[in-house]
Structure formats: C-alpha cells, structure tokens
Molybdopterin molybdenumtransferase
Amino acid sequence: MSLLPVEEAYRRLVESASPLACTETLPLLRLARRVLAQDVLARRTQPSFDASAMDGYAVRSADATAPFRALRVVGESAAGCAFTGTVEPGEAVRIFTGAPVPKGADAVLIQEQAQVETDGTVRPTASVDFRQYIRDAGIDFIEGETLLANGTWLTPGAIALIASAGHTSLKVLARPKVAILATGDELVQPGEPVGDWQIVASNSFGVAAMVAEAGGEIIDCGIARDRAPDIDAGLTRAIDEKADIFVTIGGASVGDHDLVGKVFAARGVALDFWKVAMRPGKPLMAGRLDELTIVGLPGNPASSMVAATLFLAPLVRRLAGLPDRPLYRQGLLGAPMPENGMRTDFVRTRLQTGEDGAVRVIPLPRQDSSLLSTYARADALLVRPPSAPPARAGEACRFVVLDEWKGLAEHN
Ligand SMILES: Nc1nc2c(c(=O)[nH]1)N[C@H]1C(S)=C(S)[C@@H](COP(=O)(O)OP(=O)(O)OC[C@H]3O[C@@H](n4cnc5c(N)ncnc54)[C@H](O)[C@@H]3O)O[C@H]1N2
Ligand code: MOO
C-alpha cells in the first residue's frame, strides 16, 4: 500500500465522521463541555417584573426635575421582597438592585444623587430620565423563547442561561467511547516493576488525556502481549463495551511481532488505509468493523501522539458533536530548515511571540520519535510539506498547536 497524503487521510477518517446519534439526560452540574441534543426554550420570563438596576429610590421621574423637592419615603423594595403599594406624586420608595419597581414609580434615583434630609425625606440632586435604571420585565428572555438550538456547544455562559431559564437537566449528545489498547511484550503498566528489556507503557496515557480533552470517554483495555489472541481479546472487549472507536497503540509496522493489522484482517475489519505520508506517525491504520471505527496508532511515543493529535482528537470531537478546531496556524520559521523528504514532517517545536506580535516556530534539538522528553517540551508541530525546499529563518510556515491551553495561553 502506498503512503496516503495527510490531507487525504484526514478527509477519509475525520471529515467523513458525523456526531453520534446517542443522547443522555444530564443535570446542570454535568453539562460542561457537552453538546445540546434538544432546543432549549425559556420556561420563564427573566426578569418576570420590572427590576431596579441600582441601589437608590424608586420615584416618579416628574418628581425628580429641578427645582428639586423633598420626597416622602413610604416604604422599601428589596430583592425578593417587593413594596406592594403605589408610589404617589411626592413619594419615593427605598429600592435595591434586583428589587421590583413598585407601581407608580417610573425611574430609579441612585442614592449618590439623593440627599437624605434629617426628617427622613429624600431630595434628588439631579434629574432622572423616564425608565432610568429600570430593567424591563423580559429584557433577558421571555417564556417560550428559543434560547439555544439543538447542537449548541455548552459554554459556561450557556449553562448559566439554561439554569436561569428554569431547567434542571437537559438532553445532550453522549460522549464517544474510545477503547484504548496498548500492545507489546516489552510494556509494563506504570507502577509495575520494570524488568530487563522492558519499558513503561506511556502512550496510552497521553492518548487518553487527548481523547478526554476532545470530549471522549475512555475504556482502558490495558496491555496486550504480542500475541494475536491478546489483541483479538482487546477488540472483543471494545465491541462488548459498545465503544465507538477502538484505538491500538504499537504493532502497526512491518516487524514479525507487528500483529495488529493481521488481527484486524482476521476479524474482517475493512481497512481504509494503512501508512500515511507523515513523519512521525507513518504506520497509522484506519478502518471499520460494523459501527466501530478502528484507529491503529504507531508505537513510537511521538508517532502515536502526533497521529492522535492530527486524526484521533479531531475524530473524537466530530463524534462528540463539537465544532472542528482549526488545526493549522500561521507563523514564522524561527530557524532555517533543510529540504524535506517525501513525507510531511511534523517537527516538535517551541513557540515564541516576538515584540512584533508574530509567532516564531523554533525546532527543538532532538527529533527522534522515541523521545517523550522532546515531545512534552514542545508547544507545537512545525509542518514541513512533502518535498519542501530549504527554508530560511523568518519565512512563513504553518504549525499545529499541541495543547490549546499551553500553546495559546502563552503565545497568542
Ligand atoms: N523495517 C521497517 N521498520 C520500521 C518501519 C518501516 O517502515 N520499516 N517503520 C518505523 C516507524 S516509522 C515507526 S513509527 C515504528 C512503529 O512501529 P509499531 O507501530 O509497530 O510500534 P512497535 O514496534 O510496537 O513500537 C515501536 C516503539 O514504540 C514503543 N512503544 C510501543 N507501544 C508503546 C507504549 N504504549 N508506550 C510507550 N512506548 C511504546 C516500543 O517499545 C518501541 O520502542 O516502526 C518503525 N520500524
Ligand atoms: O513514522 Mo515513524 O512514526 O517515523 O517514527
């Protein structure tokens, strides 16, 4: 099989995917980072009464025009406790922010513009306009109004709006379930004794963190030995647990112990592609087994993380119903780059924002795909297209931010 261009692999694996049909009903405190699976209509009007926007006095605006006369304070309206009488000419009602404006009053005189006399009356020191500092009933929303449409990504603001509109729980899209299986005789779980020739399985944890951030739910299938029945059992578990995506790590290349592809073939996985023209991450595999999407990540740590960044995380976001996040950004090369080979090179880099506001993309010194120390230090992947000619520092380039929080908080 020839190497598939990165863009074509993205089209096939990510762009062809659509949000899951599964929904669940969740309470307000669990709605963060979810996507609505229903329209949200206001169950009430907010505010349901004319409310004061300031602390002061509810007055008739005609009474607050020069020459100012003292007004008799006939009561108090506080938030949650209304004055039920009527403000007559020459009268005022002490009022606080959020409190109902009493009948008769048509403006709020802020207390900074009210002189309290020794006899308890108040004298305006400035005029107030008709309806000044009054929030009209329904100014935020009106009962029955559609506030949020099906498919909306629930931001903290949206969740507050939902609560205000009188809802306690809502229907949202289920999170895609992503089963992750590490493969390899050399792997031990973190915390287990590491024997001769062994290493700690690390990729599954990096990939799981990425999947969770993209809105997925993890099914940890642990480590499979380099034996077909072990890998097969992982796949069976993914199916039994109704995973939407089955991710394998390692065993994707051409070695005698790289069995993932063989197991998939034996199980009837329809392989869409194997091997993408990228470095690192070349032996990436994608296919389907009925409703299950299969993603075979390469084992080298940087390879699996880069492939997961470019394909798996966007796929999870798609299934979760989240908006696509633009992967590629523009910057300037922070160092000269040599001519590139046939695969798109994703170079682990630091980002630096100059005084001119431009983001400079600076390659880290050691790029071997086994190096997690380099990967973890990187902010971004510099994209070097296939066969790119040598480039000078300062030339325009594209890069992929590895972690939105780290990458953008520090550099945009
Ligand atoms: N003759 C060839 N050899 C290789 C080729 C090739 O085209 N021809 N491709 C190379 C490339 S590129 C990559 S990438 C690797 C990927 O190989 P696999 O996907 O089969 O990965 P493994 O061989 O299982 O492991 C590679 C490496 O990564 C370590 N590993 C595996 N899983 C984990 C894990 N969960 N956590 C941490 N580290 C892991 C493993 O111990 C190996 O050191 O193949 C090249 N070879
Ligand atoms: O693609 Mo491999 O990922 O070059 O190390």
About this structure: The pocket of molybdate ion (ligand 2) is lined by residues 279-282, 298, 300, 303, 369 (CB under 6 Å). The chain is about 20% helix and 30% strand.
